[in-house]
């Protein structure tokens, strides 16, 4: 069993404390991008404007969080109101929820695998 220099241990812990959150956020951004891509065919559209506003962004007051945003005044109504009629095939309300729920089961296990590979 080798004994490590305490300074080396502290340096490694400090490095991990900085790199691990960045690694996790990077993975989450990748999954958010996948969710955004999967949502695009489901986004209701008349002029394509709503679909074109989709982005993955950091949350302003939380550096450890990200969000998927469709940025129009009517995006939330189109997403939440399941009574709206969406005549284009495949478009519908809940255009973010369903792709997120489909991808969600693989997110945590893959991030855990990535973290195990880190250590």
How does this model look, in words?
By secondary structure, the chain is an alpha+beta fold. The chain has one domain (6-118). The protein has four helices and two strands. It has helices at residues 6-39, 49-52, 75-80, 97-118; strands at 54-59, 62-70. Strands 1-2 form a two-stranded antiparallel sheet. A hairpin with a 2-residue loop joins strand 1 and strand 2. The longest helix has 34 residues, at 6-39. The protein is elongated.
Helix content: 55-70%
Poorly predicted sequence stretches spanning 5 or more consecutive residues: none
Gross morphology is: elongated
N to C succession of SSEs:
HHEEHH
First and last CA, distance = 18 Å
- Write down the overall mean pLDDT: 89
| Count of runs of 4 or more consecutive helical residues | 4
Strand order of the largest sheet: 1-2
Query: Could you tell me the radius of gyration in angstroms?
Result: 20 Å
Number of separate strands: 2
Structural class: alpha+beta
Question: How many domains comprise the coordinates?
Answer: 1
- Strand fraction equals 5-15%
Instruction: Report the biggest beta sheet as strand number plus sense, adding barrel if it closes.
Output: 2 strands, antiparallel
């Amino acid at each position: 069993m080798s004994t490590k220099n305490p300074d080396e241990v502290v340096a490694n812990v400090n490095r991990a404390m900085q790199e691990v959150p960045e690694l996790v956020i990077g993975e989450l951004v990748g999954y958010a991008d996948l969710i955004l891509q999967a949502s695009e065919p489901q986004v209701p559209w008349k002029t394509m404007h709503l679909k074109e506003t989709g982005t993955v962004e950091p949350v302003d007051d939380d550096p450890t969080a990200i969000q998927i945003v469709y940025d129009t005044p009517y995006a939330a109504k189109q997403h939440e109101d399941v009574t709206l009629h969406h005549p284009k095939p495949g478009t519908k309300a809940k255009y973010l929820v369903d792709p997120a729920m489909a991808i969600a089961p693989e997110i945590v296990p893959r991030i855990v695998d990535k973290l195990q590979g880190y250590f």
